[in-house]
Amino acid sequence: MLPAAITAALIAAYAVDVPYHDQFELIPHLDRLYSGGLRWADFDKQHNEHRILVPQTLFMLLAWLTRFDVRAELIPNFLATLLTGFLIFRIWMGTAPPVRLPWYFLLPCSALLFGWRQYESLLWGACLVNTVTVLGVTATLYFLWRSETGTGFYALALAAAFCASFSQGSGLLAWPLGLGMLALMDLPFITKVRRMTGWCFIGFLVMVAYFANYRQQVNPWPTGIRYVLSHPWEAAQYSLIYLGSPLAGTPAQARLAGLILAALLAAVLWYGVRDARFRRSALPALGILAYVLATAPLVLNARLGLGVAQAYSSRYTVTTNLAPVALLLCWAYLRSRSRVHALVFHGLAGVILVGVLLGYHQGFRAMRSDYQLKLAARASMQCFEQAPDSALAPVLYPDAKRVRQDAAILRRHRLSVFRDRIPECGSAARVP
After folding, report:
1. H helices of 212-250, where?
2. What is the pTM of this model?
3. 421, 422, 416: which is closest to 23 by C-alpha?
4. Cα separation of 150 and 172, whole Å?
5. How far apart are the C-alpha atoms of 288 and 269, rounded to whole Å?
6. Cβ neighbours of residue 60 closer than 8 Å, sequence gap 6 or more
7. What is the pLDDT of residues 132-144, one digit of tens each?
8. What Å distances lie between residue 13 and 71, 172, 305, 364, 414, CA to CA?
9. φ and ψ at residue 94, rounded to 5 degrees
10. What is the pLDDT of residues 240-273, one digit of tens each?
């Protein structure tokens, strides 16, 4: 719990109450909320490629309770990460003592899950779409694993998969992953058929609701599977950096870490295919690994056109953090087979520890820089009528005109940086 407590203290110290980029998308909905014109579409909105009903509902509720103090969004954001860590701990506790990890191996895992490399997810409430999705998918796999002992866990898994689906597009992966897990679980035949049938039926209804009135996202950079296939070298580098980014302080280090993790992951998948006993024991961890792997093509398809270095974005690490932790769990099941397996297990633990230290160093510097940037942006937004365009865009939002329009809405309703008082900004006011 020590890494979680330290990270929570850093969040409290470096959080700034100013909306930032994607958070501006909430302001027109708040205008309707405070003008009495709120509608269902304000909740069931499509954001980029995603339907974000669950996070959007939380955003609206927190904005109403706090008059849009965006720091409040960091509370459920952190709690989602805390609950994800708790579920992984429960998976560890559910394993038999001969293969259970020694307690001290959980420290680097905990430090990784609450690592500062994911500083955007820690300090930017818009990343709630990521953290809730990760929690939803992890909870789906955990509850399905526990459903061997009770039907109540199966219902919880359905609810978790629903929440994941309507938090981010990658949350839809909970349904095929859950189906695969049900197929591999040790259940009576009739029970397995019933649960798989129910899972497919509910999943189908969710897919229909998700893609109803869905619009294809159009980006100004190259996207699509054809672009990925025509740039295989860049796609390979992007994938390695994406996988290794939690364990690195630079993109080059992330590429190396990704290569190490990919090799160990390939070995785990080989054992998973060939060894039924291992597959049965490591089923939740294998499901988590499959989820992280399945997100890589989705990100590649939408983001490769932004360049290989974009894979190092800290907002992705809340998802990719799961890969080293799940890998360590898998190798914990294998370490007793031979000295080589034990060596690989301890080597992976060492790689995670070194990667955590590198990531903490880079993340802490980024946190401080982000803090100073947002403080200056807050002052500019309070005096948005006098501030130059360069002080508003792109630091707050890509379009300075949009910042001024939305700032006027916030000032009219006394929200966000205007909730306590309207600042006095004369024509000679100095704006950072």
Report:
1. 225-229, 232-244
2. 0.94
3. 416
4. 24
5. 12
6. 26, 29, 30, 33, 42, 43
7. 999 999 999 999 9
8. 11, 35, 35, 12, 25
9. -80, -5
10. 999 999 999 999 999 999 999 999 999 999 999 9
